[in-house]
Amino acid sequence: MNWRSGSRGVVLTAYHPSGDGGDGLGPGRRRSGQYTMNHDHCRRSPDGASFDRSGSQDSLDELSMDDYWKELENIHETRGNNHEERVVVKEPDEGELEEEWLKEAGLSNLFAEGSGDSLESVVFLSTLTRTQRAAVEKRVETVTQTMRKKNKQHHIPDVRDIFRLQNDSKGKVCDGSEPSAGTSENRSAVQGGGRRSPQAGPKFSVGAGEQKSPLEDVPSSDTDINLEISFAEQAANLKDLSGGKICRGGAGDTLLPNYRVPKDKTGTTRIGDLAPQDMKKVYSLALIELTALYDILGTEFKQQKAAKIKTKDSGLFGVPLSVLLEQDQKKVPGTRIPLIFQKLIAQIEEATLETEGLLRIPGAATRIKSLCQELEAKFYDGTFNWENVKQHDAASLLKLFIRELPQPLLTVEYLKAFQDVQNLPTRKQQLQALNLLVLLLPEANRDTLKVLLEFLQRVIDHRDKNKMTLKNVAMVMAPNLFTFHAFPSKTIEQREFVMAAGTATVMRFMIQYQSLLWTIPKFIVNQVRKQNTESQKKEKKDKAMKKLLKKMAYDREKHEKQEKAPSDADVPQGVIRVQAPHLSKVSMAIQLTEDLKAGDVVARFLSQKSGNVQTLKKEEVFLYEIGGNIGERCLDDDTYMKDLYQLNPNAEWVIKSKQS
Q1: Is the pLDDT of residue 653 over 80?
Q2: Of the chain's two ends, which shows fewer C-beta atoms within 10 Å, N or C?
Q3: Is residue 77 a part of any domain in this protein?
Q4: Residues of the chain by 3-state class (helix, strand, coil), percent to 5
Q5: DSSP-based three-state secondary structure for 237
C-alpha cells in the first residue's frame, strides 16, 4: 500500500508494490515495512514509521478507519496491475489559473483583447458583494501583472475603476444582496446565524424601488444555516469580530450538528428549480463566492485542469458520463442518470438493504472482472442475466463504476477543493463550501452524485440490521470518490493519514446534509434577480430596443384584444391570474392573502372537475414564477404568494409539470 500526494494536495491511491500482492496474509495484513490494520491506535507507513492517529482531526473509531483501509485493499484487488494514467493534470503557468478563473466566472471580457467593458459584465459586477468584489479584483490584478511581464498588449481595465464608476453613478455603494459587511446590522445577523434584523434584509431592485425580503420570525440558533447573507461576508464579519482570526470550532467533533435552513416565506430554491439562463448566472456567482470564502479563510482555492484525457467512446465502465448519457438517451429518451448506474442500485435494493456489511463486503475480484466484461458485451442488447449478480457483486460493480470514470465524479477541476473543505475552520463553513461546490458541478455529475447520496442514505436507514452507520458508509465510499491516480506522486507524510479521516468526514457531510447541499442560497438568487432587473433597465435605455419593444407591445395588445376572453379582465390590486394550460383552458384569478401558499393555488386547480385534471397528481405539477426579475422558477409548496408577489410583482404565474 503506497500513498500518493498530488501536486496541489494529497490524493490517496492504493496499489501493491509488486505483482498481485499475494503474500498469503489476507486483506489488511502486509509484510514488514508496510501498514497493519489490526493495531489499536497507530498505523505503520511504508517506510516503517508509526503514526499516532488518536489526535487526528476526526477521532473516528478504529473499526471505521479499518473500513477505509480495507476498501483501499479491495480497490487494488479489483484494479489489479492496471495503473495506466488516463488523465494528465496540467500545471498552470503564472497568471493562467486566474485567467481561466475569470473565464469560468463569465468575466473573460475584462482581459480579452478589444472587448472593452460589455453591458453584461458591468451589470454582473454591480451585483457583487464586498468580498466577492475583492476576489475578482485579486484575480484581475494577477492577470494584469502577468500580461505586462509577457509584454502582451491586451487592454485590461482596472476592475476597481469599474466599481468606482458604478458607485459614483448611483451615489452609493452597490453591494449586491446585502449591506456592507461592516455594518452593525449585518454583524448582528452573522452572530445570530439564522436571523437578521429587519433593517438588514437582502435588497435588490424590483421596479421603482427596493423590496425587502420578509423572514419568518424564528429564534436564532447555532444550527441555523443563514442563506440570506453571503457566506464570505459572514466569515469576514466573524473574522472582524474575533480580531482578524477565525478560531476552529467544532471541526473535531464526531457528532454532526442538526443543521437546518429556517423557512423563507418567498420559498426555498433548489437545484433544478431555475431556468438554464438563470442557472448560468448561479454558476458564476457560486464560483466567485466560493473563491471569496476561501480567500477570507486563508485557504488556497485552485481549480485543477485536465490537459490530457484518454477515454472510451462506448461501453459502460471507464466511459465519460456525457458519452454514457448519449448512449442511454437513444434507449430511454430524457435519461439523466446512467442506466447501468440506476440498474446496479436497483439490483442492490431488490435483494434487501438489511444485509449485514452491505457496501463493505466486496465481491470476489475475479468474479467482478468477469461480470464487468459480460456487462460491457450484453447490457444494451438486454441479454445479460442479472440473476447471476449477487448483492455484494452489484455493490462492488457500483463502486467500480464510480472509480473507473475517466474523470472523478467530483471532477478534476474541483476534487482538490472538495478535499480541502476539511481544512476550513468551522463545521458551518465546511458545509457552506460544500453547498457552493455542488452548485459548480456539471449537471450530469451533480445528478449522478445526488442519486448516489440518496441511495447511501437509504442504506444507512437500515443500519440496525446491516450494521452500516453513517461513519461506516462514509469510510467505505470515501476512497471511491476521493482517490484519483492521475496526479504525480510526492514524498509520503503523516498528513496523508489525516487525509484519510478528512475525506471520510467530507463524505459524511455530503450524505448527512445532502438535502441542504442541493439548495441554492437565497443571497445568490437575489443577486440573479438584481442582474435581471439591471439588465432590463439598461436595455430599455437603448432607443432601438425601446422602439422594438413598443412595436411588440402594440402587436401583442392588438392580438390580446382580439383573443381576450371575458374572464381575463384587468387584474385588480392584490389579485394574481394563474394560467394552467394542462389543467384548464381558462385562467383563474386568485385573491392574495397572508396565508395563501403555492401549494394551495395548485390544489384549487386540481379540485376542478374539467379537462384532464383527474389524470394528474399533486406531486406532478407545480406553480411557476415566470418573468419579471427571474427567468423561471419552480416554487415549493410552502411559498407564501403575497410575499413573493411583493418581491416580483411583474411575474406571470403558471402551473405545469416539472421537467425531469
Answers
A1: yes
A2: C
A3: no
A4: 50, 10, 40
A5: helix
Q: Collect contacts of 49-56 with beta carbons under 8 A, ≥24 apart.
A: 49/494, 51/494, 51/497, 53/497, 53/498, 53/501, 56/497, 56/498, 56/501
Measure the CA–CA gap between 133 and 136, rounded to whole angstroms: 5
Give pTM, 2 decimals: 0.79
Q: Is residue 653 part of a domain?
A: yes
Instruction: Kindly state the percentage of the chain with pLDDT values over 90.
Output: 43
Angle, CA of 270, 441 and 247, to the nearest 5°: 80
Residue 370 binned pLDDT confidence (cut-offs 50, 70, 90):
very high
Last residue of a domain, one of 14, 45, 61: 61
Q: Are 61 and 48 in contact (CB under 8 A)?
A: no
Mean per-residue pLDDT, 177-192? 44
* Cα distance between residue 36 and residue 27, in whole Å: 10
198 Cα distance to chain centroid:
30
Which of 38, 61, 84 delimits the end of a domain?
61
Tell me if 65 sits within 8 A of 475, measured CB to CB: yes
Residue 21 lies in a domain: yes
Closest C-alpha to 421, from 413, 412, 430? 430
Residue that is written with C-alpha cell 466560493 in the block = 290
592 within domain boundaries = yes
User: In angstroms, rounded to a whole number, what is the distance separating the alpha carbons of residues 359 and 478?
Assistant: 12
Confidence of residue 60 (pLDDT cuts 50, 70, 90): very low
Residue 580: give the domain boundaries. 571-657
**pLDDT for 624 beyond 80:** yes
**Number of structural domains found in the chain:** 2
What's the pLDDT at 361?
A: 92
**If you ran DSSP here, which 8-state letter would residue 356 be given?**
T
Round to whole Å and give the CA distance between 510 and 289: 20
Residue 626's domain is classified under what CATH number? 3.10.20.90
